[in-house]
Specification:
Elements lengths: L1 H27 L2 E2 L11 E2 L2 H16 L5 H22 L3 H17 L6 E4 L2 E4 L4 H19 L5 H20 L2 H21 L8 H19 L5 H10 L1 H16 L12 H7 L4 H24 L1 H23 L8 H15 L2
Cofactor: Mg(2+)
Membrane topology: Multi-pass membrane protein
Pfam families: Glycos_transf_4
């Protein structure tokens, strides 16, 4: 019941805060104006991250946790939002933003949230001096993965909620109530924001909101899987598969086209779905469903690793291949798997 109370409280705080921030955004000109890469045609407030952070902090403070790790989320979250707001206003250079993200990555490390070793097939591999760069790489990767996928109303928020739900379920099974509580409070904050952010949106996440969600997801995934084994490392990767796959194929696509990997384009997963004729709302829902499949698979894998790993691996690889081929996500229009499936289906239809 207390968990439900925390969820409802953060949800209501978010619901109340957002109209105030929308008013402030318009009053001070803190809006995202239409452009060639934008899908909106009117100025939109972009202080979504501020609303989520404030409701999240209030929710956690009221819950009175005894673990000190929440301070790492607060401090890093505040710095991430400040960096994001500056970027939303002044459109800072990618290198400066990247350096800022690296510095923010040291915050959770200072509080002991770090990948220092991994257990692989019964052997323990210690990262030693590589522990810090490995941890920072993980944090920066998730921050940018969520930021990259934030291209349609409600998309990054919804995918983050689905990922948080999966982490919450697994941490409950682990008995890690603190991380579960953090996830539930953030889910409430995000759902309150999604009321105003789902298509047609009244407010955007902005870089400040997308990077905030990526930062908290990266940290809670590390906190939720402290006993790092090769298998446990797969859980957050599977849970966050949609934004990770999107950013990986964006890098591959840009490398093949001989352009900077940080150069923005309109070939992300959500762009490709719209190019194929899906509406704004339907594209978001399709990605929600794909993300839910990955999230459910991670829970199944946790419950039955001995029997589920091969089944889940086959399902995920097959699903990923279908999505990549259908959307031409990597820039390659060849569809060998889809063509094989069409051929099999056609032969079955023709057979008596």
């Amino acid at each position: 019941m207390y968990t439900i109370f925390l969820f409802l409280m953060s949800f209501l705080i978010s619901i109340i805060l957002i109209p105030i921030l929308i008013y402030i955004s318009h009053a001070f000109g803190l809006v995202d104006r239409p452009g060639t890469r934008k899908v909106h045609d009117v100025p939109m407030p972009f202080l979504g991250g501020v609303a989520i952070l404030l409701s999240f902090i209030l929710g956690v403070v009221i819950s009175r946790p005894i673990e000190v790790e929440y301070i790492a989320i607060f401090v890093g979250g505040i710095f991430v939002v400040i960096l994001g707001v500056i970027d939303d206003i002044f459109d800072i250079k990618p290198l400066i933003k990247f350096i800022g993200q690296i510095l923010i990555g040291f915050v959770p490390i200072y509080y002991g949230i770090i990948i220092d070793e991994i257990s692989l097939f019964g052997f323990s591999i210690e990262f030693g001096y590589l522990a810090i760069p490995v941890t920072i790489f993980w944090i920066i990767s998730i921050i940018n993965a969520i930021n990259f996928i934030d291209g349609l109303d409600g998309l990054a928020t919804g995918v983050s909620i689905i990922s948080l739900l999966a982490i919450a379920v697994i941490t409950v099974l682990q008995g890690n109530i603190f991380v579960m509580m953090i996830c539930v409070i953030l889910i409430g904050s995000c759902l309150g924001f999604l009321v105003y952010n789902f298509y047609p949106a009244k407010i955007f996440l902005g870089d400040n909101g997308a990077m905030l969600l990526g930062y908290i997801l990266s940290v809670v995934s590390l906190m939720g899987f402290k006993e790092v084994t090769f298998l446990s490392l797969l859980f957050p990767i599977i849970i966050l598969a949609v934004p990770i796959i999107d950013v990986l194929f964006a890098m591959i696509r840009r490398y093949k086209n001989r352009v900077s990997i940080v150069r923005a384009d309109k070939h992300h997963l959500h762009h490709r779905l719209q190019f194929l004729g899906h509406s704004h709302r339907r594209s978001v829902i399709i990605i929600y469903l794909i993300s839910s499949l990955y999230a459910i698979s991670s829970v199944v894998l946790y419950i039955s690793p001995e029997y589920g790993i091969i089944t889940v691996a086959v399902i995920l690889l097959f699903t990923t291949a279908i999505v990549v081929e259908y959307t031409s996500l990597g820039g390659n229009k060849k569809q060998p798997l889809l063509n094989l499936m069409r051929k099999i289906f056609r032969n079955n239809q023709e057979s008596p």
